[in-house]
Design goal:
Blueprint (H helix, E strand, L loop, with lengths): L3 E5 L1 H14 L18 E7 L5 E7 L27 E7 L4 H5 L11 E5 L16 E3 L8 E3 L1 E2 L15 H9 L15 H5 L12 E2 L6 H9 L1 E3 L10 H10 L19 H7 L4 E5 L7 H5 L12 E3 H10 L5 E5 L6 H4 L12 H16 L7 E7 L40 E4 L7 E3 L9 H11 L9 H5 L32 H6 L4 H17 L6 H8 L5 H13 L1
Parallel strand pairs: 4-13, 4-14, 5-16, 8-9, 10-16, 11-12, 11-13
Antiparallel strand pairs: 1-2, 1-5, 2-3, 6-7, 10-15, 14-15
Helix pairs in contact: 9-11
């Protein structure tokens, strides 16, 4: 069994012992040992089984040992953590930013995290960010400098612009260069600059620019006030739609890239929750478009699910009144549709302005934790994939292929390799300040959210026919508080105007990103499905070939709405 590691204060150790002893029905051993390297803190180490359940707890203090034993049956870890106090799980998934791009400078040797929840053997033994090394990528041939270093601080809030490559074949080049990887190959992560150089209109070194905590005050505030994982990986080394499919179903039906078809037919977590009479809603800030969840997942097309899909304004009302469902999934705005409803894209997908995402994060946090059930709520913030942007950590192998369609899936991929790291933050009054956490078993990926929800609700993981979900680690170890803490006020955001950088005219002329093409394709297919019209992939491709810019997309949306 893997051994876990948690740094905690002595008083918290004793309080935790008093709480766990009457609850755990497992046989375990307790002892105390002081660790000088941690400045007088204590180490709490414990064994967990693969699904994240506590099996054995050990506390040690140097020069003093004592033992207490309690025999009985092993109980799920949910019962021994404060996650059992949670009534509302809220997940917000933003777009296409790597871990290093957003939070690479969150902690430094001068400003380390206070608490680490991770295996004893986990490496490195500190926050795996950019302040602990010198990172670079080879420049394009014959260009100077020969090596392009990571830049601390982005030149502006739409970096990188234009949108990087993010399809499966390009991600492989970003990670491995021209090498074709075989199982177990550690990625040198040295192909980002050269791959971005192949994007028309790009400045290759921009792919190595990263945002500082001062540039992203909301995301950094939440990560430092609560818990962030520095070892959370996207589910597939590719672009948005496959990763979002894993987030909802634990599989992408063998698909690796956005494209035609634009939908997935597997059972979703929402179907499972409906089967078990567990409440859920998807709240979307998508403007005129329906929820992307609904567009992509055909098992949610039935009109019986209509009431489960609401707008973001309804989310704020539900949070304020204490009427949120057990599971809420929040979507940002993916398409610039100001001609219809005003507003701007806040998904953080390049090349849109990350400040809009900052404001959206602040709105979500304030709605939840100034609402009626703030002390019974957890917010999980993550990003679907890295978006072709530099990260220095090689994604691990050993991912479990979810189903027969994935062995192999498209492009011969066996779904045995995780995608690039993304920032994942857990926000709750039951989570301590300044925590960095990692998995004690299978590496965290988006299916860990599904595993956590199902374990929390006592639903057998087999209800989702995905072997990846069944093997996933849940996030129970981060919920260690005995009582809820007071939630800090959201920081004051400086005034900004995203339209200064992205006017309606400029946005209208901009070419669609690959993701935006996928959203329009899914919307076209869904709208025609509602009207009983069927057409093949060739017909859909012919329609989409004529949609080049955001202006074209808005005209197409208008036509579909008028038909």
């Amino acid at each position: 069994m893997p051994t876990g590691l948690v740094a905690v204060e002595p008083a918290a150790v004793r309080e935790r012992i008093q709480q766990d002893l009457p609850i755990l029905q497992a046989c375990y051993e307790l002892s105390l040992a002081k660790v000088p390297e941690l400045g007088g803190r204590f180490m709490l180490s414990f064994d967990v089984i693969s699904s994240g359940f506590v099996q054995d707890v050990t506390l040690q203090e140097q020069g003093c040992q004592y033992h207490q034993h309690k025999k009985g049956l092993v109980q799920p870890g949910i019962a021994t953590t404060s996650l059992a106090k949670i009534e509302h799980v809220v997940v917000l998934t933003l777009e296409n930013r790597s871990f290093d791009n957003l939070v690479g400078w969150l902690y430094t040797p001068e400003l380390p995290a206070k608490t680490f929840v991770m295996p004893v053997s986990s490496q490195p033994p500190y926050y795996d960010g950019l302040a602990y090394g010198n990172f670079s990528n080879p420049n394009v041939p014959s260009a100077l400098p020969i090596s392009v270093p990571v830049q601390r601080g982005a030149d502006h809030f739409t970096i990188p612009d234009p949108d990087p490559h993010e399809a499966f074949q390009y991600v492989t080049k970003q990670l491995y260069g021209d090498h074709k990887p075989v199982f177990g190959d550690v990625a040198p992560m040295n192909g980002f600059v050269r791959n971005y150089a192949t994007v028309e209109g790009s400045t290759p070194e921009h792919i190595m620019q990263t945002y500082t905590p001062e540039q992203l005050p909301v995301l950094s505030f939440l990560a430092r006030q609560f818990a962030i994982s520095d070892a959370w990986f996207s589910s597939v080394p590719t672009q948005t739609q496959a990763n979002r499919a894993f987030l909802h179903s634990g599989t992408s039906d063998g698909q690796v890239n956005n494209g035609n078809p634009f939908f997935y037919g597997s059972k979703t977590i929402f179907n499972v929750l409906s089967d078990y009479d567990v409440s859920w809603r998807v709240y979307s800030d998508s403007g005129v478009l329906p929820s992307l969840v609904r567009l992509n997942m055909t098992r949610l097309w039935s009109p019986i699910f209509n009431r489960h899909f609401q707008r973001f304004e309804q989310f704020k009302r539900d949070a304020a009144s204490g009427r949120l469902p057990a599971y809420s999934f929040i979507e940002p705005r993916f398409i610039h549709d100001a001609p219809f409803v005003g507003g701007t894209v806040n998904s953080e997908h390049p090349p849109t302005n990350v400040q809009a995402g900052e404001q959206f994060l602040a709105d979500v946090y304030t709605a939840l934790f100034r609402g009626a059930n703030w002390d019974k709520t957890v917010l999980i913030i993550t990003f679907d994939e890295h978006g072709g942007i530099y990260d220095h950590v090689s994604p691990p192998w050993g991912a479990v292929p979810p189903d027969d369609k994935s062995q192999p899936g498209k492009q011969g991929f066996y779904f045995d390799r995780f995608g690039v790291r993304v920032a994942t933050i857990v926000v709750s009054p039951w989570v301590d300040e300044s925590v960095v956490f990692r998995s004690f078993s299978t590496p965290y990926d988006h299916t860990s959210i599904l595993a956590t929800i199902m374990d929390w609700q006592g639903i057998p993981r087999g209800e989702l026919p995905s072997k990846r979900v069944q093997a996933a680690a849940n996030i129970t170890s981060v919920f260690r508080r005995v009582t809820p803490r007071k939630m800090p006020d959201m920081i004051h955001l400086p005034p900004w105007n995203v339209m200064k950088e992205q006017s309606d005219f400029a946005m209208g002329k901009r070419k669609l990103t690959d993701f935006e093409k996928g959203v329009i394709g899914a919307y076209t297919h869904y709208m025609n499905h509602l009207k009983g019209k069927k057409f093949n992939q060739r017909e859909l491709k012919q329609i989409l070939d004529h949609i080049k810019t955001l202006s074209d997309a808005n005209k197409h949306i208008h036509r579909l709405r008028q038909q």
